[in-house]
Write a structure and sequence with these properties.
Blueprint (H helix, E strand, L loop, with lengths): L1 H7 L1 H13 L3 H14 L2 H4 L2 H14 L6 H25 L1 H7 L12 H45 L3 H19 L11 H22 L7 H25 L3 H27 L3 H23 L4 H8 L2 H8 L6
Helix pairs in contact: 5-6, 5-9, 5-13, 5-14, 6-8, 8-9, 9-10, 10-11, 10-13, 11-12, 11-13, 12-13, 13-14
């Protein structure tokens, strides 16, 4: 009966049509999910846990015993921190992106700017909570420092020398976040741990400097700076191996991944240096971001092949998803 009545009354049909229009279709839901996946730079999320696992590996070499559950917990926190950071990056940059990158989710109208701000800050808050559950006070402090560096870069310092350093610090502090899986307070980490964290910070700072000129073109100096940062990072791997003197197998694995890192970032950096335009600098930035996984693996290998494997495995989904979603 009800069906017959509805079909006989146009206003009911109009109401039904309105209801259908207000209910997201499957394709609209997929589009919304795709917009958020682009907003958080989905491939890049898999480059965050390697930093944390590297931190745990560094303190394991120093004699600590990181809990696997704690490592997994702070790794999850690092993913949430990264997602929050990239979301806030686009939220703060929305007016600029409307001119330079109109295809991004916010200027394209797929995600509102207020929603992006709420989502980004919410992710940072949840990340600190997850880190506290996983590694108590030290974990929450380290995650809080990463979140502070994220907000400082996204909202205040972007495009300045301090901003490049702040972006690098988000990665260096992420390594220190991994040390808290062993119950280590950040400031109590061994000197070698702090040195490796500083190397990661410097490398990402130079990559950020290059990324800042991505849409401008003609800036070979920025590309050269990123290349110099990569070279220093590789030299630091050699220093670390000499200082630590791991067994031959671990040394060989570390050298192999350091060589893979050189190959991975070297090719696109050479291309960008020869012709520094958006179409070459963008891929170079992406390669350098994903290449951090290889650099982390080279350092982590000194703690054992299992540590190296735990880091390197994240390169697979990162590279696979980078073929679908933008990295920069």
């Amino acid at each position: 009966m009800a069906g017959g009545v509805s079909s006989d009354r146009p206003e009911n049909a109009d109401a039904a049509n309105d209801e259908r229009r207000s209910t997201p279709t499957g394709s609209e839901r997929r589009g919304s999910l795709g917009a958020y996946a682009q907003l958080v730079r989905l491939p890049n999320l898999f480059t965050a846990p390697p930093d944390v696992i590297l931190g745990a590996a560094l303190v394991a070499v120093a004699g600590s015993d990181p809990s696997p559950i704690a490592v997994a917990g702070v790794a999850l926190a690092s993913v949430l921190l990264y997602a929050g950071g990239t979301t806030l990056n686009d939220a703060f940059d929305a007016p600029i992106d409307a001119r330079e990158r109109p295809e991004r989710p916010i200027p394209a109208g797929h995600v509102s700017r207020p929603a992006a701000f709420g989502f980004g800050f919410g992710l940072l808050a949840v990340a600190v909570g997850v880190a506290f559950v996983a590694a108590a006070g030290p974990g929450a402090i380290a995650a809080g420092l990463v979140a502070a560096a994220v907000v400082a870069y996204d909202g205040l310092l972007k495009g300045t020398a301090a901003g490049f350093l702040a972006m690098g610090a988000t990665r260096g502090l992420n390594v220190l976040l991994g040390t808290t899986a062993a119950g280590s307070a950040v400031l109590a980490a061994p000197a070698r741990v702090l040195a490796v964290s500083a190397v990661v910070t410097a490398y990402i700072a130079t990559v950020t400097f290059m990324a800042d000129s991505e849409t401008e073109g003609g800036n070979r100096g920025a590309v050269a700076a990123a290349g110099g940062g990569a070279a220093v990072a590789v030299l630091a791997v050699g220093w670390y191996l000499v200082a630590l003197e791991p067994p031959p197998l671990e040394t060989g694995v570390a050298i192999g991944f350091a060589a893979a890192f050189c190959w991975w970032v070297g090719r696109p950096l050479r291309t960008a240096s020869a012709d520094p335009v958006s179409s070459t600098v963008g891929p170079a930035v992406g390669a350098c971001v994903l290449g951090l996984v290889l650099l982390d693996t080279a350092f982590a290998a000194a703690a054992g092949v299992r540590w190296a494997a735990a880091v390197a495995v994240f390169l697979v989904p990162a590279v696979g998803l980078s073929r679908v979603f933008d990295v920069t």
